[in-house]
Amino acid sequence: MARILVVDDDGQAIEQTTRLITQAGHVADFLLESQYLISKLEAAPPDLVLLDVNMPEVDGVSLLKRIQSLPHLQEIPVIMITGETDEGLIQECFLLGAVDFVHKPVRPLELMSRVRIALATRAHIHAIQAQKSALQRAKSFTDAILNSMEEGICVIDCQEYTIQEANRVFLTGINLPRHRVVGESCRALLAGKGHACQACDGPGVPGCMLHETLISGEATCREFSGQGLGEQPLHTLVHTLPIHDATGRTDRIVCLERDVTQTRERENRLKHLAFHDPLTHLPNRQLFHDRLHQALAQGRRHAQMVAVMLFDLDHFKAINDTLGHAAGDLLLQEVARRLKTCVRESDTVARLGGDEFTAVLTNVTDASQVRKVSRKMLKALGRKFSLGGHKVTVTSSIGVSLYPMDGDEMADLVDKADKALYQAKHSGRDTVRFYAATEAECP
Description:
The protein has helices at about 10-25, 35-45, 60-70, 85-95, 110-150, 170-175, 185-190, 210-215, 260-275, 285-300, 315-325, 325-340, 365-380, 410-425, and strands at about 5, 25-30, 50, 80, 100-105, 150-155, 165, 220-225, 235-245, 250-260, 305-315, 350-355, 355-365, 385, 390, 395-405, 430-435.
């Protein structure tokens, strides 16, 4: 049931028209004085207006212009009624926004048919507007959810591999506005942007996560490590989720990307702390044992010698007692730095605790090579140390055991290197002793 307003200066015409409207099940209202039309529409907007063209106070064309000039009244459909047949007038009314035209004398069947069409059209327009409004609310809701998430999210079309949608985190990550992203190829867009996907060979080929998800129809997950903007380390965890159409075919893919750089760096720091000395950052006792185990395995496999060296700083306690523990820590850090300069990348220098250091030399050709490294170490440690304005000289005692001559087990080699160190300390310090039946002092 609709409310229909009849505007006419002819009382008989109004009576006839309102009767037809009522018989059709609608509510009829009327207005004789056309000059009050706008105020009446604003007070109670009807669903439809039947407006006579020729009226003495204000004509229908002028009223139609006025209605269309007011945004809050523009949606009210208006059917013009006139006894004139001037096509120019009819065309003008249509251009001004009239939805239909009825000639006088009014034929009941024609009038109600045009009323029914106008009301149905209005209802259809309202339904479309309501649907559009619902879609807009749904989109706003979806956008709010997407932009509140910590992950970067984008939706990619499987036909052209173009980006259809992207959230705020994704756009921020590649430093581009939305209008530069939507509709662009993912490969062309993301290359050089520090994005994880630049590691693949391109969409639609083996190795591409999108390709794998499209072929399998299942979600995939992969972590990428590389460099982001500013050449900073970047670790990205990427999930690809298929979206299926009504036939079950994958036509779009959602990519969720999470920056796990801080997590991985934290894990690396914890791992470093678990296997390294916090003061010198050298491998600790646990990592030393692991490195020595690997060195012995390699020595057995390639029939190569391995040297185990133990260091003890001479009179280190006196440094702590006279200059303080802060100076002692500076000394240990500098000792670590100097020892590392004396060995190769494939060798290991570790701190066992206190002033005890150790080294594992791999791929050793003969004992003379170890003696050469030992002399280099003693020379490096023999240079003066600058500790907070104090110049000090520290010497070291070194004990050495060799695989396979002195044993082939890790514990046995460490024990014999310790015995050689004991002999070095009790033979005057600042020297090297090899564990052997005939020990030779390093000149």
